[in-house]
UniProtKB/TrEMBL annotation:
InterPro entries: LPS_export_LptA, OstA-like_N. The keyword Signal applies. Residues 155-166 have a biased composition (Low complexity). Keywords: Signal. Transmembrane segments: none annotated. Residues 33-139 form the Organic solvent tolerance-like N-terminal domain. This is LptA/OstA family protein.
Amino acid sequence: MRQIALPVLLLLSAVPAAAQTAHNSAAPIDFGADHIELQDKANRAILTGSVSVRQAEMTLNAARMTVAYTGQVVNGAPQVSRLDAAGGVTVTQPDKTARSQYAVYDLNKRLITMLGAVTLTQSGNTVNGGRLTINLDTGRAVIDGAAVGGGGSTGVTSRSGRVTGTFSVPKRN
């Protein structure tokens, strides 16, 4: 499996350095959904229907999300360790927007992995692929164009097995 980071690095270079600050993964997580099911014995919550999760300046939207948390309680709240999102997933940060079919936000590793028909848009540039990994500490994003899974009924494959995209060209006099 080959990883192609160059197009994404070019995207990041087009954004001022101030916009590439590390994400505050210790910030509280606010959420909204049409329905929530708490499964305390399994240490998880299932959110369905127009799910929206916000942490600091990042928003994650999806049709469905599973929130995994530890049994440890700090300041009266369980500690969230992972968010699994499915169905029209969108991750929005001030300088970029990513879309996919599925996403996993590992709060301990501070990584977001997005799978299936991934599109990353930043500063008028667009990159498409099968899998996107965003490191929230560094802001580095890596898109892999190879098929992610077996496809089948889940459809978790990229369209062509390649990273594709469009870069904007500045106007010149």
